[in-house]
Design goal:
The structure is a homotetramer. The first copy, chain A, is mostly helical and about 110 residues long. Chain A has a single domain, classed as Helix Hairpins, CATH 1.10.287. Helix content of chain A is about 75%, strand content about 0%. The longest helix of chain A has 25 residues. Chain A is globular, with a radius of gyration of 17 Å. Chain A starts with a helix and ends in a 7-residue tail after the last helix. Chains in contact: A-B, A-C, A-D, B-C, B-D, C-D. Chains A and D meet through helix 2 of A and helix 2 of D.
């Protein structure tokens, strides 16, 4: 499965439920933000070390995977509704970041 | 470019800058949340209709693509550090959603 | 009850439960962010008009009040842990905003 | 200055700039969320210990106070537009929390 496949599947999912009128970019930004809030709640009381071991507990691992999935689903749906190519935008951004933050000189 | 390629590129990017100690899951969740905050600011005063036409203005379109890219970059980096397969998690979630929200019966 | 009273009550609340080690500013920022995420979820699918009438339904009204309260509680706790006078900071900011955004001149 | 004074001042501020049409609860929730995102960015790469000392640097201290102020301003404006008494809601919530999380029994 690719991001494009995922976008198509979400498009069909929304159409089959008549959810398209709710999927304005503004609403989807809020939904994305709400899911990131749920992800944040899983990490808020953890030390940095505990956060690195968060998948060791099966129950928490399930919740973390679930929230990461929700974030991706709304991000892909939002980009699709807007007509933005997410991977192209990400590649362009990382190219710019290569210039903004040159690697540390060695030796 | 695939999500896997992107994850590898971000891994190299962090290594070349000695940023790995900063990239704890906890910190990356916060970075993801901060980027979603910047995306939110682009949409906060727009009507639903204006939000649907947000790419019509070239300057705003650039900013929206840029913030969507940042959200994807931190999401992919976070999943990579955790060892989570984002697309598999998303596919599993949408499978569950198919059952949680059956399509509207027609006629 | 004032904001100062609230800060003291939250201080006692945390002390009585031995939660102080968890209440680092970093963790409290995440907790605040998580609560704003829950508030966002209450509004994400609403039209602007529906959002203005959100207190008309008693169940939703309870949830909105509850999330607004949680946001205030974490904001006050965070400011108290940092030693920031929230009302003084807000007053200073609104003074600056008066200059940044002069009122519209009238015909 | 009290929270009520602040709410009145923000009400006048919005009226003088004809910003009231923008101040729907939905938009204000997004604005609040955006400001919490800016606050999050100030803390995202800090260790817990660094986050506790964040006011030691005068520049960062100014930024932290500024973002805390922005969060309070939008929270107060949102509650005022909705007609919610923030302090009463907070007091009711902390009363409920006293029962949900009884203090640790002591030796």
């Amino acid at each position: 499965m690719t991001l494009d496949d995922l976008a198509l599947r979400l498009r069909d999912f929304a159409a089959a439920r008549n959810w398209e009128p709710f999927h304005t970019p503004k609403n989807l930004v809020m939904a994305l933000s709400g899911e990131v809030g749920e992800l944040t709640e899983l990490f808020q009381w953890l030390t940095p070390e505990e956060s690195a071991a968060v998948l060791d507990d099966p129950g928490t691992a399930h919740d973390v995977r679930d929230e990461l999935a929700d974030v991706l689903l709304y991000l892909v749906r939002l980009a699709d509704v807007l007509g933005v190519d997410l991977l192209a935008a990400a590649e362009a951004k990382i190219d710019r970041n290569e210039h903004r933050f040159p690697p540390e000189s060695v030796g």
